[in-house]
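Provenance and format

Records in this collection were gathered into a single text stream. Each protein contributes a sequence line and a token line. The two records reproduced below are adjacent in the stream.
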Amino acid sequence: MVDTPYTCFVVKEAEQGGVQMKGSIGTTTSIYHTRLPNQHSLQRMARCLDLSREAKNRLSMIGHYKKHKNVSVTCRRFGISRTTFYKWLKRYLRKGPRGLEDLPRTPKRRRVSRIPWQTVELICDLRREHPAWSKHKIAVILGRDYGIHLSSSSVGRILKRKGLYDKRISRRKSRAAKRRRARLRAERWMRKAFPGCLIQIDTKHLRFGGRKYYQFTAIDCFSRVAFSRVYSSASSVCARAFLEEVKGYMPFSVLALQTDNGAEFLKHFDRATEEELITHYFSHPYCPKENAFVERKIQTDTYELWAFQEGYTVEEVELTRFR
């Protein structure tokens, strides 16, 4: 084996428990870690100064450099760059072992609140009198009744700093606010009632020319009248535009829609259904059988229109409507 600055070999007798291996002279040898000449003093210094683990490692790096006088070997030994080594060496020469500690990362100039203490006391009094009031309501009341205009975030920081912020209650309120409203489920009889009673809508992902497109498909469960349109995005805005086209294409009034739980059928799309007084039904999660009519229509379109992609170009996909 090759002798390095980090390991060395010493001849020992076999009865002392040495590792049985043959060296260059055919005797039993043992391997142990090399200790630097001043390693004991550096370790005592680190213990006396109560340095952190990172600082102790950097102190060992300095001791390694003092022994070998070679920056490249030291950097390879500790896995750092030369710039990093010189940075810690300068700090060590300027401040000693204490300079090897990490500097505090807190900003030198912290932002100081400019809200008057009278306003802070008023916010605390309102919260103590009405514990159920949120930061949003307190901000509105301050502007309406007291002429103090503060953001809800500022009110929340004051409540948190004064210990008037209960995480459990706030978490419960936030979950209740984000909880979705109850989603309606369509009845079976609606599929065979009359035209326009229930129209199912779904999307199909397409890929042409390295780009992704989305086919929105709507079909009336009673009359089987279908309408499809390709968009470059599957957002709720595109779904709302598709709803307007469906209303203009269908020869009867649209009373109810049924979709899956995709994001494209929420927000703008759901808001449009409320404005148009159209009942929006949702299928159960992971139950495509509830949208069997539109699923069958998508499969038919896939075979008739998209199975042989050489018949259409990207421009035709963007400009063509399939009815």
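Adjacent record:
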Amino acid sequence: MKKLIQVFLGVFLLLGQFVAPSVSAEGEKEFEGEKVVVGTVSDAALELWEYIADKALEEEGIELEVVVFNDYNQPNVALQNGSLDISAFQGHPFIRSWNADNDGSVYAIANTLLMPLGLYSDKYDSVEEIPENGVIALPNDPSTLGRALLALEIAGLIEVDDEVGIFAEEEDIVGNPKNLEFLLVDPNFAALSLPDVDAALINTNFANDAGLSINDAIFNDAEDIDKVNPLYINTITTLEENKDNPLFLKIVELYQTEDVVEKLYEVYNHEVYPAIDVPLPELEDAE
């Protein structure tokens, strides 16, 4: 993880040396007239990918159509049925979990960014104020649920069995001194649960869509980034059979540039960590 932090801090220094230019010196456009359909799940991501679409058309003659979904499952369904070419929203654990549950072949071809997972509350200003028998809303998808429980452990609210890794479930809680209760909710509706619970763990993109900033959170799991597993980095994905598709890798190349990193900071209000130079991990490392 120390290496991961160094990559984050050094991204702007390294980009100029190691990211290949998008257009050849001769001005050739190998993919002129090609079209790629990309799916994502938030307003901020839409703004980012619209910027990349303009860049792709201007520099490479590629038409990039951006489709926004309102949940995490539909983009992968669309990848599998061929209505999407690539997607950009999910971390490595979600890919693994979704593939296992759906006999899928979704495959990460590049890392993009790390989003903090924030604990928000309409009632309390600190983690310490959360009361005995309090209710906390958690995302109901298995991969994000594991991260949410580990975030609560980092916050000092619970203890999780060390043996379960990143796919923790409620039954893996081995310490709960405040006798907290947990309400599982759809991640994209988590912000709507705030009036009815003591706190809710909300993904950054959905928090932003609800008008919340990571600065509004009473805790986020990236406050000590050394404790965040790099498997939680978001990715650009396609189907495994297309992992070497040169057109899709050209889109990755267009993403992995300094101007896109700057745009990323702009649309996410400096609330995310660029991770374009972090090597793709093997999901078996999550065991």
